[in-house]
Design a protein that fits this description.
Pfam families: ADH_N, ADH_zinc_N
Shape: globular
Radius of gyration: 20 Å
CATH topology of the largest domain: Quinone Oxidoreductase, Chain A, domain 1
InterPro entries: Acrylyl-CoA_reductase_AcuI, ADH-like_C, ADH-like_N, ER, GroES-like_sf, NAD(P)-bd_dom_sf, Zn-ADH-like_protein
CATH class of the largest domain: Alpha Beta
Keywords: Membrane, Transmembrane, Transmembrane helix
Order of helices and strands: EEEHEEEEHEHEHEEHEHEHHEHE
Protein name: Oxidoreductase
Structural class: alpha/beta
Bound molecules: NADPH dihydro-nicotinamide-adenine-dinucleotide phosphate
Protein backbone atom coordinates (compact mmCIF):
# COMPACT_ATOMS: atom_id res chain seq x y z
CA UNK A 1 0.00 0.00 0.00
CA UNK A 2 1.23 3.50 -0.76
CA UNK A 3 -0.16 7.04 -0.66
CA UNK A 4 -0.95 8.77 -3.95
CA UNK A 5 -2.70 11.74 -5.46
CA UNK A 6 -5.27 10.33 -7.87
CA UNK A 7 -7.26 12.23 -10.51
CA UNK A 8 -10.54 10.61 -11.48
CA UNK A 9 -13.10 11.60 -14.05
CA UNK A 10 -16.71 12.11 -12.95
CA UNK A 11 -19.88 13.65 -14.37
CA UNK A 12 -18.77 17.12 -13.25
CA UNK A 13 -15.27 16.85 -14.77
CA UNK A 14 -12.09 15.61 -13.13
CA UNK A 15 -11.44 15.52 -9.39
CA UNK A 16 -8.19 14.96 -7.50
CA UNK A 17 -7.95 13.33 -4.07
CA UNK A 18 -5.33 11.89 -1.76
CA UNK A 19 -5.76 8.15 -1.52
CA UNK A 20 -4.07 4.85 -0.73
CA UNK A 21 -3.35 2.37 -3.51
CA UNK A 22 -2.18 -1.22 -3.73
CA UNK A 23 0.90 -2.06 -5.77
CA UNK A 24 -1.06 -4.28 -8.15
CA UNK A 25 -2.83 -1.17 -9.47
CA UNK A 26 0.43 0.23 -10.87
CA UNK A 27 0.50 0.44 -14.68
CA UNK A 28 2.70 -1.83 -16.83
CA UNK A 29 6.43 -1.10 -17.08
CA UNK A 30 9.81 -2.79 -16.81
CA UNK A 31 11.03 -0.84 -13.76
CA UNK A 32 9.27 -0.45 -10.40
CA UNK A 33 10.62 2.15 -8.03
CA UNK A 34 10.10 3.73 -4.67
CA UNK A 35 9.51 7.43 -5.21
CA UNK A 36 11.57 9.46 -2.76
CA UNK A 37 10.77 12.97 -4.02
CA UNK A 38 8.46 14.49 -6.57
CA UNK A 39 7.68 18.09 -7.47
CA UNK A 40 4.84 20.41 -8.27
CA UNK A 41 5.05 22.20 -11.61
CA UNK A 42 2.65 24.52 -13.41
CA UNK A 43 1.63 21.56 -15.60
CA UNK A 44 0.82 19.43 -12.53
CA UNK A 45 -1.35 22.28 -11.25
CA UNK A 46 -3.19 22.34 -14.60
CA UNK A 47 -3.70 18.57 -14.32
CA UNK A 48 -4.84 18.53 -10.68
CA UNK A 49 -7.17 21.54 -10.94
CA UNK A 50 -8.49 20.32 -14.31
CA UNK A 51 -7.86 23.79 -15.75
CA UNK A 52 -5.83 22.47 -18.66
CA UNK A 53 -6.16 19.38 -20.86
CA UNK A 54 -3.03 17.73 -19.44
CA UNK A 55 -4.43 14.36 -18.33
CA UNK A 56 -5.12 12.09 -21.30
CA UNK A 57 -6.42 9.00 -19.49
CA UNK A 58 -8.19 8.41 -16.18
CA UNK A 59 -7.65 7.54 -13.40
CA UNK A 60 -4.24 9.27 -13.38
CA UNK A 61 -1.53 9.79 -10.79
CA UNK A 62 -0.18 13.25 -11.62
CA UNK A 63 3.45 14.34 -11.26
CA UNK A 64 5.67 14.95 -14.29
CA UNK A 65 8.84 14.53 -12.19
CA UNK A 66 10.13 11.91 -9.83
CA UNK A 67 13.36 10.87 -8.16
CA UNK A 68 13.60 7.50 -6.49
CA UNK A 69 15.25 4.15 -5.95
CA UNK A 70 14.74 1.14 -8.21
CA UNK A 71 13.06 -1.78 -6.41
CA UNK A 72 12.62 -4.17 -9.31
CA UNK A 73 13.88 -4.08 -12.88
CA UNK A 74 13.57 -6.12 -16.07
CA UNK A 75 15.49 -3.41 -17.92
CA UNK A 76 19.18 -4.20 -18.48
CA UNK A 77 20.07 -0.55 -17.75
CA UNK A 78 18.87 -0.60 -14.12
CA UNK A 79 19.08 -2.81 -11.03
CA UNK A 80 17.55 -2.64 -7.55
CA UNK A 81 19.10 0.14 -5.48
CA UNK A 82 19.89 2.44 -8.43
CA UNK A 83 19.04 6.09 -7.87
CA UNK A 84 17.13 7.47 -10.83
CA UNK A 85 15.35 10.59 -12.06
CA UNK A 86 12.48 11.00 -14.48
CA UNK A 87 11.23 14.15 -16.22
CA UNK A 88 8.39 14.14 -18.74
CA UNK A 89 7.81 11.44 -21.37
CA UNK A 90 4.07 11.90 -20.76
CA UNK A 91 4.34 10.73 -17.16
CA UNK A 92 1.54 12.39 -15.17
CA UNK A 93 -0.34 12.86 -18.47
CA UNK A 94 -0.73 9.46 -20.18
CA UNK A 95 1.18 7.26 -17.70
CA UNK A 96 1.00 7.34 -13.87
CA UNK A 97 3.43 9.87 -12.45
CA UNK A 98 5.49 10.85 -9.44
CA UNK A 99 2.98 12.06 -6.83
CA UNK A 100 2.72 8.59 -5.30
CA UNK A 101 4.83 6.33 -3.10
CA UNK A 102 5.56 3.95 -5.97
CA UNK A 103 5.84 4.14 -9.75
CA UNK A 104 6.16 1.57 -12.51
CA UNK A 105 7.31 2.75 -15.91
CA UNK A 106 9.62 2.27 -18.88
CA UNK A 107 13.25 2.13 -17.78
CA UNK A 108 14.24 3.88 -21.02
CA UNK A 109 12.58 7.05 -19.67
CA UNK A 110 14.85 7.17 -16.63
CA UNK A 111 18.20 8.89 -16.27
CA UNK A 112 20.69 7.96 -13.55
CA UNK A 113 20.92 10.49 -10.73
CA UNK A 114 23.57 13.00 -11.84
CA UNK A 115 26.50 13.33 -9.45
CA UNK A 116 26.89 15.33 -7.18
CA UNK A 117 23.14 15.92 -6.77
CA UNK A 118 21.05 14.20 -4.11
CA UNK A 119 17.59 12.90 -5.01
CA UNK A 120 16.18 15.95 -3.22
CA UNK A 121 18.37 18.37 -5.19
CA UNK A 122 17.45 16.64 -8.45
CA UNK A 123 13.81 17.40 -7.71
CA UNK A 124 14.58 20.97 -6.60
CA UNK A 125 15.80 21.27 -10.19
CA UNK A 126 13.06 19.07 -11.66
CA UNK A 127 11.45 19.61 -15.05
CA UNK A 128 11.56 23.36 -14.49
CA UNK A 129 15.31 23.46 -13.96
CA UNK A 130 16.08 20.96 -16.68
CA UNK A 131 13.91 23.03 -19.06
CA UNK A 132 15.75 26.19 -18.02
CA UNK A 133 19.00 24.40 -18.92
CA UNK A 134 17.58 23.37 -22.32
CA UNK A 135 16.72 27.06 -22.90
CA UNK A 136 20.24 28.17 -22.01
CA UNK A 137 21.71 25.48 -24.29
CA UNK A 138 19.47 26.76 -27.13
CA UNK A 139 20.74 30.32 -26.62
CA UNK A 140 24.32 29.03 -26.73
CA UNK A 141 23.63 26.99 -29.88
CA UNK A 142 22.46 30.17 -31.56
CA UNK A 143 25.55 32.11 -30.58
CA UNK A 144 24.24 34.15 -27.65
CA UNK A 145 27.41 34.59 -25.60
CA UNK A 146 27.76 36.57 -22.35
CA UNK A 147 29.38 39.46 -24.24
CA UNK A 148 26.52 39.63 -26.78
CA UNK A 149 24.41 41.81 -24.48
CA UNK A 150 21.59 41.58 -21.95
CA UNK A 151 19.49 38.42 -21.61
CA UNK A 152 15.88 38.65 -20.47
CA UNK A 153 14.17 36.01 -18.31
CA UNK A 154 10.37 36.22 -17.95
CA UNK A 155 8.24 34.68 -15.20
CA UNK A 156 11.49 35.06 -13.33
CA UNK A 157 10.15 34.34 -9.84
CA UNK A 158 8.59 31.04 -10.98
CA UNK A 159 10.29 27.65 -11.29
CA UNK A 160 11.78 27.78 -14.80
CA UNK A 161 12.52 31.49 -14.44
CA UNK A 162 14.34 31.20 -11.11
CA UNK A 163 16.67 28.46 -12.34
CA UNK A 164 17.25 30.29 -15.65
CA UNK A 165 18.29 33.43 -13.76
CA UNK A 166 20.69 31.47 -11.54
CA UNK A 167 22.20 29.55 -14.47
CA UNK A 168 22.69 32.52 -16.77
CA UNK A 169 24.18 34.64 -13.98
CA UNK A 170 26.67 31.89 -13.09
CA UNK A 171 27.65 31.64 -16.77
CA UNK A 172 28.49 35.35 -16.80
CA UNK A 173 25.48 36.82 -18.63
CA UNK A 174 23.95 40.11 -17.55
CA UNK A 175 20.47 38.90 -16.64
CA UNK A 176 17.39 41.10 -16.59
CA UNK A 177 14.57 39.42 -14.67
CA UNK A 178 11.00 40.28 -15.64
CA UNK A 179 8.32 39.65 -13.03
CA UNK A 180 4.77 40.61 -12.12
CA UNK A 181 5.82 40.53 -8.45
CA UNK A 182 8.07 43.47 -7.61
CA UNK A 183 8.19 42.21 -4.02
CA UNK A 184 10.42 39.37 -5.29
CA UNK A 185 13.12 41.81 -6.49
CA UNK A 186 15.53 40.97 -3.63
CA UNK A 187 15.05 37.26 -4.23
CA UNK A 188 15.82 37.68 -7.94
CA UNK A 189 18.88 39.80 -7.21
CA UNK A 190 20.13 37.10 -4.83
CA UNK A 191 19.76 34.55 -7.62
CA UNK A 192 21.96 36.75 -9.83
CA UNK A 193 19.70 39.18 -11.70
CA UNK A 194 21.50 42.41 -12.60
CA UNK A 195 18.19 44.25 -12.99
CA UNK A 196 14.54 43.49 -12.22
CA UNK A 197 11.81 44.92 -14.45
CA UNK A 198 7.99 44.90 -14.35
CA UNK A 199 6.04 42.76 -16.73
CA UNK A 200 3.45 45.56 -17.03
CA UNK A 201 4.46 47.28 -20.30
CA UNK A 202 5.08 44.03 -22.09
CA UNK A 203 1.50 42.86 -21.57
CA UNK A 204 0.08 45.62 -23.82
CA UNK A 205 0.03 45.42 -27.63
CA UNK A 206 3.27 46.95 -28.96
CA UNK A 207 4.87 47.88 -32.27
CA UNK A 208 6.10 45.23 -34.76
CA UNK A 209 9.64 46.46 -34.04
CA UNK A 210 10.74 48.14 -30.82
CA UNK A 211 14.09 49.49 -29.64
CA UNK A 212 16.65 46.67 -29.88
CA UNK A 213 17.52 45.58 -26.37
CA UNK A 214 17.81 41.82 -25.79
CA UNK A 215 20.62 39.64 -27.13
CA UNK A 216 18.79 36.61 -25.79
CA UNK A 217 15.64 35.75 -23.87
CA UNK A 218 14.15 32.83 -21.96
CA UNK A 219 10.38 33.14 -22.06
CA UNK A 220 7.88 31.14 -20.00
CA UNK A 221 4.95 33.52 -20.48
CA UNK A 222 4.07 33.43 -24.22
CA UNK A 223 1.17 35.56 -25.49
CA UNK A 224 1.58 39.32 -25.83
CA UNK A 225 4.71 39.29 -23.69
CA UNK A 226 6.49 36.96 -26.12
CA UNK A 227 5.33 39.06 -29.09
CA UNK A 228 6.81 42.18 -27.48
CA UNK A 229 10.04 40.37 -26.64
CA UNK A 230 10.48 39.32 -30.27
CA UNK A 231 9.97 42.97 -31.30
CA UNK A 232 12.69 44.13 -28.88
CA UNK A 233 15.37 41.56 -29.78
CA UNK A 234 18.72 42.77 -31.02
CA UNK A 235 19.92 41.93 -34.51
CA UNK A 236 20.26 38.08 -34.77
CA UNK A 237 19.17 37.60 -31.16
CA UNK A 238 17.47 34.40 -29.97
CA UNK A 239 14.41 33.81 -27.81
CA UNK A 240 14.03 30.38 -26.20
CA UNK A 241 10.26 29.97 -25.80
CA UNK A 242 9.11 27.26 -23.42
CA UNK A 243 5.93 28.37 -21.67
CA UNK A 244 2.41 29.69 -21.86
CA UNK A 245 1.79 31.06 -18.36
CA UNK A 246 0.43 34.25 -19.94
CA UNK A 247 -1.37 32.68 -22.87
CA UNK A 248 -1.21 30.36 -25.84
CA UNK A 249 -1.67 32.98 -28.58
CA UNK A 250 1.24 34.71 -30.25
CA UNK A 251 0.04 38.09 -31.54
CA UNK A 252 3.32 38.91 -33.30
CA UNK A 253 4.41 40.01 -36.80
CA UNK A 254 7.19 38.49 -38.91
CA UNK A 255 9.12 41.80 -38.80
CA UNK A 256 11.70 40.76 -36.14
CA UNK A 257 12.43 37.51 -38.00
CA UNK A 258 12.82 38.89 -41.52
CA UNK A 259 14.32 42.30 -40.72
CA UNK A 260 16.53 41.49 -37.72
CA UNK A 261 17.21 37.79 -38.26
CA UNK A 262 15.75 36.97 -34.86
CA UNK A 263 15.43 33.27 -33.96
CA UNK A 264 12.47 31.92 -32.04
CA UNK A 265 13.73 28.64 -30.60
CA UNK A 266 11.02 26.32 -29.29
CA UNK A 267 11.86 24.25 -26.23
CA UNK A 268 10.14 20.98 -25.33
CA UNK A 269 11.34 19.02 -22.33
CA UNK A 270 8.78 16.21 -22.48
CA UNK A 271 9.94 14.27 -25.54
CA UNK A 272 13.46 15.71 -25.62
CA UNK A 273 15.88 12.99 -26.84
CA UNK A 274 17.86 11.13 -24.18
CA UNK A 275 21.29 12.37 -25.29
CA UNK A 276 20.22 16.00 -24.86
CA UNK A 277 18.64 15.24 -21.47
CA UNK A 278 21.87 13.68 -20.25
CA UNK A 279 23.79 16.68 -21.54
CA UNK A 280 21.37 19.06 -19.78
CA UNK A 281 21.84 17.20 -16.47
CA UNK A 282 25.64 17.24 -16.91
CA UNK A 283 25.49 20.98 -17.56
CA UNK A 284 23.28 21.53 -14.49
CA UNK A 285 25.90 19.74 -12.40
CA UNK A 286 28.60 22.09 -13.62
CA UNK A 287 26.70 25.37 -14.11
CA UNK A 288 24.15 25.56 -11.30
CA UNK A 289 25.29 26.70 -7.89
CA UNK A 290 23.73 24.10 -5.50
CA UNK A 291 23.66 26.79 -2.80
CA UNK A 292 21.18 28.77 -4.92
CA UNK A 293 18.84 25.76 -5.03
CA UNK A 294 18.04 26.09 -1.33
CA UNK A 295 16.96 29.69 -1.82
CA UNK A 296 14.50 28.75 -4.53
CA UNK A 297 13.03 25.54 -3.03
CA UNK A 298 10.10 24.94 -0.71
CA UNK A 299 8.81 21.58 0.59
CA UNK A 300 5.12 20.71 0.47
CA UNK A 301 3.98 17.36 1.92
CA UNK A 302 1.97 15.02 -0.32
CA UNK A 303 -1.10 15.72 1.83
CA UNK A 304 -0.93 19.46 0.94
CA UNK A 305 -0.29 19.10 -2.79
CA UNK A 306 -3.92 19.55 -3.89
CA UNK A 307 -4.60 22.86 -2.06
CA UNK A 308 -1.19 24.22 -3.14
CA UNK A 309 -2.12 23.93 -6.82
CA UNK A 310 -4.44 26.94 -6.51
CA UNK A 311 -1.48 29.09 -5.41
CA UNK A 312 0.52 27.86 -8.38
CA UNK A 313 -2.29 28.66 -10.80
CA UNK A 314 -2.52 32.14 -9.27
CA UNK A 315 1.22 32.73 -9.89
CA UNK A 316 1.84 33.05 -6.14
CA UNK A 317 4.51 30.42 -5.70
CA UNK A 318 8.15 31.45 -5.59
CA UNK A 319 10.71 29.19 -7.21
CA UNK A 320 10.31 25.43 -6.95
CA UNK A 321 8.06 23.18 -4.88
CA UNK A 322 9.36 19.74 -3.95
CA UNK A 323 7.29 16.97 -2.45
CA UNK A 324 8.83 14.44 -0.02
CA UNK A 325 7.02 11.22 -0.83
CA UNK A 326 8.93 8.53 1.08
P1 LIG B 1 5.56 28.62 -12.29
O1 LIG B 1 4.11 28.68 -11.96
O2 LIG B 1 6.53 28.20 -11.27
O3 LIG B 1 6.04 30.03 -12.86
C1 LIG B 1 5.33 30.73 -13.83
C2 LIG B 1 5.62 32.20 -13.69
O4 LIG B 1 5.02 32.86 -14.81
C3 LIG B 1 4.99 32.85 -12.47
O5 LIG B 1 5.79 32.76 -11.33
C4 LIG B 1 4.85 34.29 -12.96
O6 LIG B 1 6.10 34.96 -12.89
C5 LIG B 1 4.54 34.12 -14.42
N1 LIG B 1 3.09 34.17 -14.66
C6 LIG B 1 2.13 33.46 -14.02
N2 LIG B 1 0.92 33.79 -14.49
C7 LIG B 1 1.12 34.72 -15.45
C8 LIG B 1 0.25 35.46 -16.29
N3 LIG B 1 -1.06 35.29 -16.27
N4 LIG B 1 0.80 36.33 -17.15
C9 LIG B 1 2.14 36.48 -17.21
N5 LIG B 1 3.02 35.81 -16.42
C10 LIG B 1 2.50 34.96 -15.54
O7 LIG B 1 5.65 27.67 -13.57
P2 LIG B 1 6.91 26.91 -14.19
O8 LIG B 1 8.11 27.76 -14.04
O9 LIG B 1 6.91 25.53 -13.72
O10 LIG B 1 6.48 26.88 -15.74
C11 LIG B 1 6.44 28.10 -16.46
C12 LIG B 1 5.84 27.84 -17.83
O11 LIG B 1 6.72 27.02 -18.58
C13 LIG B 1 4.49 27.15 -17.81
O12 LIG B 1 3.70 27.67 -18.86
C14 LIG B 1 4.85 25.71 -18.08
O13 LIG B 1 3.78 25.01 -18.65
C15 LIG B 1 6.00 25.89 -19.04
N6 LIG B 1 6.91 24.76 -19.07
C16 LIG B 1 7.20 24.23 -20.29
C17 LIG B 1 8.08 23.20 -20.41
C18 LIG B 1 8.42 22.71 -21.75
O14 LIG B 1 8.93 21.60 -21.87
N7 LIG B 1 8.19 23.47 -22.80
C19 LIG B 1 8.68 22.58 -19.22
C20 LIG B 1 8.40 23.27 -17.98
C21 LIG B 1 7.52 24.32 -17.93
P3 LIG B 1 6.44 36.08 -11.78
O15 LIG B 1 6.18 35.39 -10.48
O16 LIG B 1 7.85 36.42 -11.99
O17 LIG B 1 5.48 37.19 -12.05
Amino acid sequence: MFDAVLIEKGDQGSRASLTTLEEDRLPPGDVTLRVAWSTLNYKDALAITGKGPVVRSFPMVPGIDLAGIVEQSDNPGYKPGDKVVLNGWGVGETHWGGLAGKARLKGDWLVPLQSPFTLRQAMAIGTAGYTAMLCVMALERHGVTPDAGEVLVTGAAGGVGSVAVALLAKLGYRVVAMTGRREEADYLTTLGAGEVIDRGDYTQPGKPLARERWAGAVDVVGGQVLANICAAMRYRGTVAACGLAGGMALPATVAPFILRGVTLAGIDSVMCPRAERLEAWRRLASDLDPGKLDALTREVPLADVIPTTDLLMAGQVRGRIIVPVN
